[in-house]
Specification:
Elements (H helix, E strand, L loop, with lengths): L2 E5 L2 E3 L5 E8 L7 E7 L6 E7 L5 E3 L7 E5 L5 E6 L8 E7 L6 H4 L10 E2 L3 E5 L2
């Protein structure tokens, strides 16, 4: 079974940047995309970004638009989330997730979209503080 491992989390000041990585082992052509989610304290899991591997199209949750960028390595075994201009409301555990069943990123980024994802990493903590 494919395994996802997130890394790159840490503590930054407001306005700072982090790049998260999602390393996928056992990733095959059956996996058509990958998404990033986050769970902040006291809140439900929220879609952050999503990519379709077939054409490289990307989608973002409202909180990430204009600040975060999802990208992938050429061999599709590593996906990154570049986070710029981090804000005090961004601290959360960030997860990458995927599914063997093709999924529409636009839907996945919407409310409750995370329920369609079957394979999750364990998450990486992002903290924003001064």
């Amino acid at each position: 079974q494919v395994q996802l491992v997130e890394s790159g989390g840490g503590s930054v000041q407001p306005g700072g940047s982090l790049r998260l990585s999602c390393a996928a082992s056992g990733f095959t052509s059956g996996y058509t995309g990958l998404a990033w989610f986050r769970r902040a304290p006291g809140k439900e899991r929220e879609g952050v970004s999503c990519m379709h591997f077939s054409d490289g199209s990307t989608y973002y949750g409202d909180s990430a638009k204009g600040r975060f960028t999802i990208s992938k390595a050429a061999d599709k075994n590593m996906v990154y989330l570049q986070m710029n201009n981090l804000k005090p409301e961004d601290p959360a555990v960030y997860y990458c997730a995927t599914n063997l069943t093709p999924f529409p990123c636009q839907v996945v980024m919407g409310p409750g979209g995370h329920v369609g994802m079957d394979i999750w990493g364990k998450g990486t903590q992002v903290t924003v503080s001064s």
